[in-house]
Amino acid sequence: MEKELWYRLRNSILITLSVYCGFEWVVFHIISQAYQFSVLFYFVFVTIQILFHIGIYIFLSISKNFFYLVDTKETLNKVNLANKITLLRISMLPSLVFLIIAIKQYPVGSVLLSAIGLTFITDLIDGRISRSFHQVTFIGKVLDSVSDYSLLLVIGIAYFIYELIPLWLFTAILVRLLFQAFGMLVLLIKHKSVEPKPTIVGKITVASIMIIFALEPLKLVFAQNVKATLGIIELLVCIIVYLSLLDKAWYFYKQGILKRAQ
Questions:
Q1: Please, where are the H alpha helices in 162-199?
Q2: Confidence (pLDDT) at 85
Q3: Is 13 in contact with 80 (CB distance < 8 Å)?
Q4: What radius of gyration do the chain's Cα atoms show?
Q5: H/E/C letters for each residue in 104-162?
Q6: CB-based contacts of 186: which residues, under 8 Å, 6+ apart?
Q7: Is the dihedral angle over the CA atoms 118, 58, 159, 30 positive or is it negative?
Q8: Start-to-end CA span in the chain (Å)
Q9: Which of 71, 90, 122, 183 could be cross-linked to 252 through a Cys-Cys bond (beta carbons 3.0 to 4.6 Å apart)?
């Protein structure tokens, strides 16, 4: 990438991440005042939030050559709208984690539901925007995969710790996510390149997990009234997750064959 293009792209990345980090800090500050979070809890969040966004910047800097349009191979000099929406989803991870931690001690259930709902909405619209405005980028594909699986992993672990999801469902989701990560790593090591291409089954799996994750906090509000219904949905999601393992195994097998043929 030329120095001038990288300079513009770097500024765009810094501005985007700074705005997200600052805005989320302000929102968390307001919430902490409203629900009287402890000073230690508040400052731990601020520290993690800053370090997390520095980490995102480092990752994007390393991946600067991925900022190009898939169709035309045109190099970007700024973060486009679709990628900004995807980055927002990634940027919100610390806020989600701390809200999940806080829910045991503070009545922030409605805030948590709103935050989770917002992250899932961004997942629905970033892909449509990129396709509608011809903004599909390679970095966008990478970020979308990273954001989806990071979000599901973080929320899944937190939900399991706080007993919002059963062990068997958590195990299914964890196995699926680790299998995805391991498969991508093997392709990257063996063939020095990997391109995330979601399958229809994969999309259905991610969507089903997101739906059950959005519904699980209802247990904190309605307790026994929704337990049976959510149990049925959990079972269906678990079946979908295990079926997706077969789909993903076939995908990695085909990718390996294609890479060897090139």
A1: 167-191
A2: 93
A3: no
A4: 19
A5: CCCCCHHHHHHHHHHHHHHHHHHHHHHHHCCCCEHHHHHHHHHHHHHHHHHHHHHHHHC
A6: 252
A7: negative
A8: 25
A9: 183
SS3 217: coil
Q: What are phi and psi of 68, to 5 degrees?
A: -150, 155
pTM of the model: 0.77
Smallest CA-to-CA distance from 214 within 121, 93, 87, 142 is with: 121
Q: What's the pLDDT score for residue 104?
A: 79
Residue 236: pLDDT above 90?
yes
Residue 179: band (very low, low, confident or very high) from pLDDT cuts 50, 70, 90: confident
Cβ within 8 Å of residue 205, ≥6 positions away: 176, 240, 241, 243, 244
User: Cβ of 65: how many Cβ atoms within 10 Å?
Assistant: 11
DSSP 107: -
Distances (CA, A) of 76 to 7, 79, 81: 11, 7, 12
State residue 55's pLDDT score: 93
Closest CA to 125 of 95, 169, 75, 84: 84
Confidence of residue 56 (pLDDT cuts 50, 70, 90): very high
Rounded CA separation 24/27 (Å) = 5
Region class of 192: left (phi > 0), else alpha (psi between -120 and 50), else beta: left
- Rounded Cα distance, 101 and 190, in Å: 39
The count of other CB atoms within 10 Å of the CB of residue 37 is 20
Query: Looking at residue 169, what is its pLDDT?
Result: 94
Q: What is the mean pLDDT of residues 77-88?
A: 93
115 is written with which tokens? 């935050």
What phi and psi, each to the nearest 5 degrees, are found at residue 51?
Answer: -65, -40
Supply the pLDDT for residue 47: 96
